[in-house]
Structure formats: structure tokens, C-alpha cells
Amino acid sequence: MELKILQVIDTLGVGGAEKVLVTLANLQYKYKDQVAVLTLLEPGELAPALNPAIPKWSLHRKWKYNPLTMYRFVQIAKKFDVIHVHSRHNMRYVYLASLVFALKNRVVFHEHFGDIETDTSVKWHQRLIYPKLYYVGVSEKLCAWAKSKVGVPDEQVFLLSNTVASYPLVLNQKKEKPEALKIVIVGNIRRPKNIVFAIKLLKQIENYNSPTLTIIGKIKDEHYFKELLALVENLGLVGKVIFEHECNNVQLILPNFDVAIHPAHSESGPLVLIEYLGQGIPFLAHDVGEVTKIVKNKYPEYVIDTLELNAWKEKLSEVLDSTSEERKKELRQFYEENFSEQTYYQKCRSIYAKVLHS
Fold first, then answer.
1. What string of pLDDT tens digits covers the 358 residues of the chain?
2. Same domain for 99 and 212?
3. Residues 137 and 196 occupy one common structural domain
4. Which range of residues forms the domain containing residue 202?
5. Pair 149, 83 in one domain
6. Rama region for 194: left / alpha / beta (φ>0; ψ in -120 to 50; rest)
7. pTM score, two decimals?
8. How many domains does the chain have?
9. Would you say residue 273 lies in a domain?
């Protein structure tokens, strides 16, 4: 059955939820669904990554509760079988607009909240809204939270682990200094990403093959960014820590690096680990999130359940010692087997079928 699906988000900036929307919309178009994308604010940096043939609307909302903008949204949404809404703040808006202008179409709420490991609080509006819609969590912890804490009925909760677009393996990349250890961390500059820890780790291993740390991500917390710059200077790591804020397609540059790290305090995905796997990059990740759990079953040496610096130093050495061209091919194959786009699309399509027949 051909479906009419409207993907909704505030803007397609560079972030995990936004990447998921772009990947999913492109897949739905590829498999002949009638998919469209609506941004409540501006199109955003990732908008050009959408297939050009996908219909797009941008409401350019100025005042959040402008009834004319809400009415415009509802008039567009009425044309679709499923309204697939990404992220909490957007769900609140869609719920209110639906209430005011009597939108009766099925609404699927896709929850990407990354701080569930450290923040399980429930707001009053979540108790009011979530049980009335269909909840898709990117991790088992989010799904369990929705059922036990918020009161969403079991039959309205679905797990949909993340995927990323299947980019070709980038070959023949050569480092400028082959002897230097190049480490990367991908994540927007926010406190939960625990970038302070990554910088301190670099200091711990600074005698190991002239290491450098490249931090790829947009500045989401200016105060935290200033703290990071001060830490880099205080530890004498100026020139060894590089910030890259303008990269919108990290897979194209990942092969420049030897190893990746992911020391986040909390993460529901984490999406970036799939990108590392997709390019065959070994990594060391803190034991949080759905993807990490899947990786741990196959490669336990890539996951660590502590944030103690010496333990990370030892574990990172273990990861580097086990790295070979054969291992990189294994990681790419692991990506294909566990995070393929076709499997992801079919899981999402199955959720829609249950929603429409409930």
C-alpha cells in the first residue's frame, strides 16, 4: 500500500534527529511512498541532503503560537495518512495545533531525547499528550520510560533503533603524517557530550605517537565552548586539539582518522557510532545507548562502562592494538548486517501499518 507521510521537524540543522529524518525521508521516497517534509522554522543546513524530488514546506514560524501558522500546518497535514513528528518541542506544537484546528490524522511521535540516561523526569504536558499518540523511541530505555513513567499504553510504544545513510566506503585517504595518531570525536558542542573528558584523555596519552584530537560539531553551548578552549590552553594542548564546526557530512572525512572516541554522559542512539562503523573506523565508547549495546555484543573491547581516565587510556591502547585492515572490513560488514537502510525502512513501515490499523 502506498502511504502519504509528512515528516515534521523545526529545522534541519546538523544533529542526530535531523540526520534520521533526512535518511528516513530519502528511504521512503526510494521505496515509492508519497513522503514530504515540513520544517516549522527554516529549512536548515541538512535540507540539501533531501532528495530534490521530495516536496518540502517551510513555515518560517516567527511567533510560536501564531494561529495562522498553526492553521497552515494543519491544512498541509490533513493531506497525509501519517504525520511523523521528530523531537519533543515539535510534538507539543503539533499537538496544540491539532487540538485547536481539529486535525484527526494519525500522529507518530519519534523520540530522540539523548539525555535519558541522566534525566528521566516527566513533565505534566508529557503525561497529558504522549498517551494519546503513537510513541517511537530510538532506544529501549526511552520506550521503557514512556511506558512506566509517562503512561503510554504498551501497544502504542515502538522501538526503532537508529540508522545512517549508506555512504560508499571512502578509500585511498592518506594522512599527512602517517606516524601521528589522529583521534576524532563527533558531536555538537554541548555538556552531555563530555568533551572535557576527551581533552583530558588526550593529555593522558600525549606521549603516544604525537596524538591530535579533532572535535567535529556545531557550537550549541557557547559557555561550554569557552570552557573547552580554556582547558585546551591550560593543559598545553593548543595546536593538538582542533575544532571543526562546518562539516555536514562526517563520513567523507572519517577515514582521515585512526580511531574515534565517544565519552558522552548520556545518549539514546548514539547515531555517530553507526557512522564510524559505516567507514570501518575503530572506536571506544562509553556504555550508553541502543547502538552501543548492539556493538558490545560483538566487540566488547569497543565499549567501556566507566569514565575513569586511566581505564580509558588502557582500553584505547587495546583498541589500537587490535586494529587492522581486516578488522576495518569486519566493522563495515557489521554495519551492513545490523544497520542496513532496508531493514530500517521495513521496521518503520511495520510501525505505520500497526498505527493505521489500530
1. 689 999 999 999 988 899 899 999 999 999 999 999 999 999 999 999 999 999 999 999 988 889 999 999 999 999 999 999 999 999 999 999 999 999 999 999 999 988 888 889 999 999 999 999 999 999 889 999 999 999 999 999 999 988 887 666 665 455 454 568 999 999 999 999 999 999 999 999 988 878 999 999 999 999 999 999 999 999 999 999 999 998 878 888 898 999 999 999 887 767 889 889 988 999 999 998 888 989 999 999 999 999 999 999 999 999 998 888 899 899 989 988 888 888 899 999 999 999 999 8
2. no
3. no
4. 182-338
5. yes
6. left
7. 0.80
8. 2
9. yes
Same domain, 37 and 55: yes
Place of cell 496544540: 96
Cell of 158: 515502538
- Give whole-number Cα distances, 136 to 25, 140, 177, in Å: 16, 10, 45
Q: Where are the alpha helices (DSSP H) in the chain?
A: 16-30, 67-77, 88-100, 124-129, 140-145, 195-204, 222-234, 271-278, 290-298, 309-321, 325-338, 341-356
Residue 25: inside a domain: yes
CA distance 322 to 336: 21
Q: How many residues comprise the chain?
A: 358
DSSP secondary structure letters along 87-111: SHHHHHHHHHHHHHTT--SEEEEEE
